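seq/struct pair 1
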Amino acid sequence: MRLIPRSLVGQTLLAVAVALIVAQAISAALLYRAAEQRRDTALLNTAAFHLVAGPASPRSAEDRRARRQIRQMVQAARSPHRDDGLRRLPRRLRYIIQDASPLLPTERRDAESETGIDAILSAQGVDIAELVVTTRSAEADPLLATAAQRQPRLRNALAGRQPELLVVGLRREGDAQWEVARVLDPPREGRFLGTLLLQTAILVAVLMVLLWFVLRRIARPLDALADSTRRFSGTGAPEPPLALSGPEDIRRLIAAHNAMQARIGSMLDEKDVMLGAIGHDLKTPLAALRVRIEGVEDPGARATMAATIEDITRTLDEILQLARIGRSDVAAERTELGALAASVVEEFEDMGEPVTIEQHGRIPAPVRITWIKRGLRNLITNALRYGGSAAITVLREGDHAVLRVEDEGPGIPEDRLAEMLEPFTRGEASRNRDTGGAGLGLALARAVAEQHGGTLVLANRPEGGLRAEFRLPTG
């Protein structure tokens, strides 16, 4: 399955969606970090406030507030949202004075929190002799565990959540006792991630819908332009001008395409007229010359002149055929390539040529039968001329059909393989058809392959000889 779409619309939508998701993820990380920093700052400030305000608070008022806090916690314990009632401890648990440090033997001090609280207390004019800060679970705190045993309702309120406690111990200058503040670590916002995911999903959906309509307005005329160009490059047949649509930039592109297509069509029409005139003007005197040589008395000279005229006529036919490829009005037909190749092989077998064929299943493909046969004949003729025999194989490789022609000849030097596909290029310098012809066979075969959206590939066989392959798309 393809993960990255091929179309402009699909790739743009995917890129925007990924960019938006990444941006939202970065934003979420920054927001979460800022929220954690605010949460930690609030926790330290609350602990510092208890230490500063603790000694000056009236005991009776604090007792009343403590009882009210306990009642609120018990009520919250009976509520589906009981976690909200555990944000504060009763006053008698939040602030106490004791003789020893609150740090338990197995606990570690929180140096970062100590630095923060030290700065807050120093700013309030508190003379600090010693300061310890640690974090422990509520069930591991001796004071809170004792209070929970005495108060069943408090025990029920704390059950299930197991909150964390920030415990701060302060010993002031000139004082042997420790002031200890306990602050419940407030619960983190559990719905933060879900809210962000929902927000991201809504943003992506809305943006994708709007962007899809905008991109379709751009992509639709581009698709029509690509289809028109593909058809024109395949057949060369003139087409009606495309309607101007889409944004202004696309309209200018379509207008330029229409003008270019009209110009190319006019040039191709002129070329066809010129080729027709050349063919007529050259073949007529050649035919007349063929009649006149019948009066030559020397049979050897007459045969030589006739062969020369025939050679010129065949070369002229090949040139005209090469020039006309791509201007065929015949539509491609879906044809079984094995049967097509077998029909060409039969032609050579009827002439007694050593040609064999091997097929690997049925391989249908859209082709122009006449042109494919002509190209295949050229490849087989080359194999017979240089190798003495030809072996044809029809097979499928991926989404391409392969018509392979192999011989046992001398092959082609590696540095000349690409050159041999050019017109009028031959393996040896003479123009004698008995030793190679005019050098148009491979060029014509390459043009046929390219007309069908395929390629002609030449390669030397490891065991000797040349391999020529038509590689044609099956779709």
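seq/struct pair 2
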Amino acid sequence: MRDAAARAIMPHYQALSADQIDAKAADDVVTVADTESEAILAESLAKLLPEAAIVGEEAAHADPSLLARLGDALCWIIDPIDGTNNYAAGKPPFGILIALAEAGETVAGWIYDPLTQRLCHAHRGQGAFIGDQRITARSTGQTPPIAAISLVFADPARREALKTQIAPHYTMVDIPRCAAEQYPRIVLGTNDLSIFERTLSWDHAAGVLFVNEAGGKAARIDGSPYRVDEDRKGLIAAASPALWDELAARMVKL
């Protein structure tokens, strides 16, 4: 991850030309740094674990059939630059996300911030760490709790319901448009909760594991575990199970 950041991401940061940024979809871009970073990461991960499938965000965009590999016995999942819109605009936050899944369940995840060199990582059943330091999720201690809720991918009716039925119970803050930043904010006491509508594996596999291993809770709104091989919407992440339960109870009434 540090190699990809040094060779592909930071050299292009705040130096991208217009022809190095392409629109992938509405409100979604890809840069030359994304493709270069993914190539470096995929090559290195293939050497580490040759038997594992590799599903990168940009490769899957070019060939959606790769998504069928997410449920393989072993699968590397790569987001070469998470928060690309921020990156392309020359501002933080952005990061690299890598997860290793086993038959659809995340068993390890890494979240790297190239600007600060912060590395968050977790292995299933072994706790969560920032660098070498084990970390335990903590709430903000604020009343009402602080919630970062993404409405970008919610349909209009659901967006309105979230605004009228959920928002009044929380102090709402802007989302960073970067899961590589949002999940650490949940663990580090910056935010208490997040709701995600779109739950693509490269955006969430590493972060969900990191929150859960830190003692918080991240799961589907119905309480079921997040799996990388399921194409479903809706995910809650919280600094504690109690905060998660409170928000989930409100969400089922929408």
